[in-house]
Amino acid sequence: MAVETTTRAKLRWGLLDVLVVVFALIPVLWIASLSFKTPATLTDGNFIPREWTLDNYKTIFDTDQFVRALINSIGIALIATLIAVVLGAMAAYAISRLDFPGKKLLVGVSLLIAMFPQVSLVSPLFEIERQLKIFDTWPGLILPYITFALPLAIYTLSAFFKQIPWDLEKAAKMDGATQGQAFRRVIAPLAAPGLFTTAILVFIFCWNDFLFAITLTSTERARTVPVALSFFTGESQFEDPTGAICAAAVVITVPIILFVLFFQRRIVSGLTSGAVKG
Amino acid sequence: MADIVLDKVSKSFPDGTVAVQDVDLEIADGEFVILVGPSGCGKSTTLNMIAGLEDISSGELRIAGQRVNDKAPRDRDIAMVFQSYALYPNMTVRENMAFPLRLAKLDKETINRKVDEAAKVLELTSLLDRKPANLSGGQRQRVAMGRAIVRQPKAFLMDEPLSNLDAKLRVQMRTVVSRLQKQLGTTTVYVTHDQTEAMTLGDRVVIMRGGAVQQVGPPQELYDHPRNLFVAGFIGSPSMNFLHAAVQDGGLHTALGEVPLGDRVRRELESADAPRELILGIRPEHFEDAELVDDDTRRRGMEFEAPVDIVESMGSDKYVYFTVEGEKASAAELEELAADAGAADFAGAGGNLVTRLSAESTVAEGQTRRVWFNLEKIHLFDPGTGRNLTLHEGRAAGALAD
Ligand SMILES: Nc1ncnc2c1ncn2[C@@H]1O[C@H](COP(=O)(O)OP(=O)(O)OP(=O)(O)O)[C@@H](O)[C@H]1O
Ligand SMILES: [Mg+2]
User: Fold this and answer.
1) Is the dihedral of CA B31, B32, B36, B42 positive or negative?
2) Nearest-5° Cα angle at B284, B281 to B288
3) Is B211:B18 a contact under the CB 8 Å cutoff?
């Protein structure tokens, strides 16, 4: 009887899962499907294209606009991620390990930044960046990205650091390690899953941002893909760019998938098991 | 190899907690010293100060004659075994044990040789390539010991290294630790709250309470000549019995009858500020079935009658529990001991008397029985200060001493 209920429960859950996955994936698949359609069959309403074509992909890679935006996106997101994770790791380590005055305040302020509506900062940032002459440059986007990614990084990372037993660090010190060696050789390897998880989250945040990218850029110099997409036109003004936009949308999800797959393999759970008993 | 000297060492935490207070302790080269006491008495803090993991608030710490207060742990050349083992989970057993040697920048061959040697001593050779996650508790414990001994440090510090093991393994590892220490002859400071470990392992035992040292000495000395109520109640299992005793006409009125006093104790009690009430302490083995006592022995003690509660026959002797009427002994120390041991283990101050009688005794539950006890082995404590009044020049002399 117990077996019966579990199989039935499994079935029910399985069905529910499929439903959710389908609900989430159909728009994505639809876009992928559109990107392979010819302009003529674009609006025929078929889920599977009747006529397959790669023209849309050729178009976007032929336009300098898109390639340039892709390079901007990758560069900006990677640099912002790297800096945010390194700074976040240091801050999170201090927060989880040290007792210093103003610790609560620091955590509170970083939480405040995360909650602050970004849209209200857009105009002041625009003014500031123009004054500082970093408007429409890479640093002009990297800086706000780091600002908003840091609270996220600090939060996830301090949760990870707190899981690592204090005793390991003490043991390393007793074994003759300096503070730096203890961090590099004992703590960092154990915090790696946390670092990778954080990197993924921050990268996705930077990659997907539209608001800052559209307000803080004006030319192809620093324009990222989400913004470039919105500026897409066809070959001529009268041509429908839908196919090309869809192809571009597919292309920009690829780096994210690769990024996640690459790091996910490193996110092994239970890395600290066996360090301490109970 | 080195001696360790704590000279008025104190520790107060930023929040105002004074964890350790004016601890004076001289640990000789090669000595095995145990720090023991109830939870929160400052054992770990003391050990961490020796290790360099906690700053010393005041006082001086000398290792091998050198002041090391301001030295980092890595410059003190001391190894530590943690209660949690603290093995590096991302490294194999071999890498764990080699870690201190690699940090010391020894060459590969030397490292391998030393690790192999240590592994052999601890019977870890077949486990060298495993990760800590795939080891049993006892094996992890041995790896932690291995990591400490590979680099032949000046001293070992161990913070309750066996408390995570089950009872049987703990007894086994106890002999391993003891043998290892004898073999290596390295100065060792060992923290435990288990008084059996304290009694069996160490050359000397340091009993702590509330951050202060209560008494230091070889285990047997602490057992026979406790300086105060706390030490008396802490050492010994089952613990010492404590009874309320009122001073009356040069004798003591207790639940076991009128206890006569010798001249020395009487003189102590004559001064104006002497307590009018005392706590009488007597260990279970100083009772005997009155039927089995010969006349010569009988004269050295006195007898009482009480109903038998429970008889536990251990084969070699019998633990017999009696109910006694009368006021309960009360003192801050006793409450603390009871709280630490859990009410079940610490029958000491209750209306219950724990005695250890000869196996030949025919005592049975439900009877009322005549019991003899040895007056020469009695301790009398001042309930206010906890001081042992029967102690004379460090030796306990019983109630009758002249
Ligand atoms: N970082 C700290 N800040 C404030 N107080 C502390 C700190 N660490 C320890 N204490 C206090 O210092 C006292 C001694 O602690 P310690 O860890 O030395 O006890 P212990 O004897 O090792 O106890 P246990 O047997 O439970 O391990 C305790 O009262 C504890 O609460
Ligand atoms: Mg402790």
Assistant:
1) positive
2) 115
3) yes
Q: Which CATH architecture has domain B229-396?
A: Beta Barrel (2.40)
Say what the pTM is: 0.80
Nearest to B201 by CA among B185, B218, B213: B218
**Ligand 1 contacts CB of residue B11 (under 6 A):** no
Kindly report the backbone phi and psi dihedral angles of residue B398, in degrees, each rounded to the nearest multiple of 5, phi listed first: 80, 180
Which of B89, B104, B151 has its CB closest to that of A275?
B89
Whether the CB of B17 sits within 6 Å of ligand 1: yes
ipTM of model = 0.81
pLDDT tens profile A114-172: 888 888 889 999 999 999 999 999 999 999 999 999 998 998 888 888 888 888 999 99
- Say whether residue B147 is in contact with chain A using an 8 A CB cutoff: yes
User: B253: how many CB neighbours lie within 10 A of its CB?
Assistant: 17
Residue of B87, B151, B164 with shortest CB distance to A274? B87
Q: Which residues of A touch B100 (CB under 8 A)?
A: 175-176
Q: Which CATH architecture has domain B4-224?
A: 3-Layer(aba) Sandwich (3.40)
- What domains can you pick out in chain A, each with its CATH number? 1-53 (no CATH), 59-264 (1.10.3720.10)
Strand order in the sheet with B187-192: B78-81, B155-159, B187-192, B32-36, B204-209, B212-217
How far apart CA B285 and CA B282 sit, in angstroms, is 8
